[in-house]
Amino acid sequence: MTSSRRLSTVILPIHRWHEGGRALWVRAEELGFHAAYTYDHLAWRTFRDGAWFGAVPTLTAAAAATERLRLGTLVTSPNFRHPVTLAKDLITLDDVSGGRITLGIGAGGNGFDATTLLGSGEEPWTPRERADHFEEFVPMLDRLLREPSVTHEGRFYAANEARNIPGCVQRPRLPFAVAATGPRGLKLAARHGQAWVTTGDPKLYEAGTAAQSVAAVGGQISRLGAACEEVGRDVAELDKILLTGFTPGRPLRSFDAFVDFAGTHFELGFTEIVVHWPVPDSGFDMDDKVFERIATEATAQLG
Questions:
Q1: What residues contact residue 2 under an 8 Å CB cut-off, 6+ apart?
Q2: What is the secondary structure of 125-155 as a DSSP string?
Q3: What does each C-alpha distance from 29 to 13, 66, 68, 105 come to in angstroms?
Q4: pLDDT score for 225
């Protein structure tokens, strides 16, 4: 991944493919976005009672419908994924897309992904347990995508001569964008990531200010730098991705507001800012004309 100032979008998997879904991914490429991502959940928040499609089949279809656009998850988690089966899906996606896949991956949260597969009497993982799983999941997945055969006997995951031939189109494997803010996750990003992802500080979303949010994400970048230094890596090697929509204020209320927001965060060291494709009557509702202007004009203004 090269460091620069890029704009990308995330398209929620809520659209039937032949009733407008395909057209959105094609339009994302036409608008010039660097990448288009989708969420990898079983269901998510207020969208639970509506259409919600699988991330891997959606990205496979998007890969066939586009030519240049990078594609990926933002983000996948161990909540309902196993590294062996995920690796097979990712190698296939990377092949279908001609090497355009980025894996956004995080430890996951305590929403529907954490509870849908639970049996009676089972409890979802605690934050510490999620971090424990993530700490084993990422390096194992790294091996599975690099090596033709992997045997692993871990605390949570096992593989017995798991074969992944021919491997990824992108060598030595497709890039990882690791979502993390805590020390264990940041160390995983430093060791295994080609990019790092944040949504800001969730504690500030409801009652914080824009200035507090900027200070918080600046602190996250500093801690990422310390994690990289600890493992002997230059933090400049990692792209730094901000997924918007979860920070105080309304940076997408107008073109000028977004340019100010993006400029501030690029100056902090972010290399990619991701905006949600507009979804009417939701927290991601916005004027389509403003959205398209951001896509086509903001990068030039930001320099």
A1: none
A2: PPHHHHHHHHHHHHHHHHHHHH-SEEEEE-S
A3: 17, 7, 7, 23
A4: 98
pLDDT at 132 over 80: yes
Query: For residues 292 and 197, what is the distance between their CA atoms, to the nearest angstrom?
Result: 24
Contact yes or no for 165/145 (Cβ under 8 A): no
Which pTM was predicted? 0.96
CA distances from 268 to 42, 244, 261, 264 (A): 34, 15, 11, 7
Handedness of CA 29, 1, 106, 56 (dihedral sign): positive
Q: Which two tokens stand for residue 102?
A: 């980025």
DSSP assignments along 97-133, one per residue: HTS-EEEEE----SSHHHHTT--TT--PPPHHHHHHH
Helix axes 210-230, 183-192, angle to 10 degrees: 60
Question: pLDDT (tens digit, 9 = 90+) per residue, 9-51?
Answer: 999 999 999 999 999 999 999 999 999 999 999 999 999 999 9
Residue 50, CA atoms < 13 Å, CB-side half-sphere: 12
CB 108 within 8 A of CB 129: no
Q: Are 154 and 140 in contact (CB under 8 A)?
A: yes
Beta bridge partners of 177: 104, 195
Residue in the block written with tokens 């086509």:
296
| Spatial distance between the Cα atoms of 13 and 48, rounded to a whole number of angstroms | 12
Write out the H or E segment, with its range, that includes residue 158. strand 158-163
Crossing angle of helices 21-30 and 55-65, rounded to 10°: 50
97 close to 149: Cβ distance less than 8 angstroms:
no
- The CA distance from 179 to 219, in Å, is 15
Q: Which pLDDT score, from 0 to 100, does residue 303 have?
A: 72
Q: Are strands 35-38 and 149-153 parallel, antiparallel or unpaired?
A: unpaired
